[in-house]
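User: Sequence recovery, please. Input:
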């Protein structure tokens, strides 16, 4: 538990979420496969938060880690879009995967840049890109770049955890 809490990425003094991969010795964010750059994870962090919320009688450190992660996930939400497959006869398999404007929907990126805080993408060449359409179609359609992973956590699980553990959040932190 201490290791998990201590690997929560802190940016400008504020805890955020976790990376998909951390170095086994330094615990710092690291790359994995070429298209998985060191970054904040909108996906893997959900499982970590869910695990921490299962801790009975959580310490102040665990409560703070959960609260900060949930707040970061709320801020990272990308409103007004849906991530979906579309037919595209110009592509080798006749389809592509894109973000489509959909006012009632919301998604989270799989990866967020550690410095800029915005979604990032990479193809098999390992080069950072800011637009998914710049990644080769094989990686666009063969990987989950966006998803709704935090949705249930933020709408149901986290509020229930707050009530169960008497955790009240304010603009200045956890009470």
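Assistant: Recovered sequence (175 residues):
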């Amino acid at each position: 538990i201490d290791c998990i809490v201590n690997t929560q990425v802190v940016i400008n003094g504020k805890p955020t979420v976790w990376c998909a991969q951390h170095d086994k010795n330094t615990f710092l964010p690291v790359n994995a496969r070429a298209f998985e750059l060191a970054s904040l994870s909108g996906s893997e962090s959900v499982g970590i938060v869910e695990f921490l919320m299962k801790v009975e009688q959580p310490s102040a450190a665990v409560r703070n880690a959960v609260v900060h992660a949930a707040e970061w996930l709320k801020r990272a939400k990308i409103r007004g879009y849906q991530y979906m497959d579309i037919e595209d006869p110009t592509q080798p398999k006749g389809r592509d995967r894109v973000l489509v404007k959909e006012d009632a929907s919301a998604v989270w990126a799989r990866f967020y840049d550690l410095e800029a805080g915005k979604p990032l993408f990479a193809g098999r060449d390992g080069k950072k890109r800011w637009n998914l359409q710049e990644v080769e179609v094989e990686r666009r359609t063969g990987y989950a770049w966006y998803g709704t992973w935090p949705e249930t956590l933020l709408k149901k699980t986290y509020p229930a955890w707050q009530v169960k553990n008497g955790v009240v959040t304010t603009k200045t932190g956890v009470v």
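The chain has a mean pLDDT of 94.
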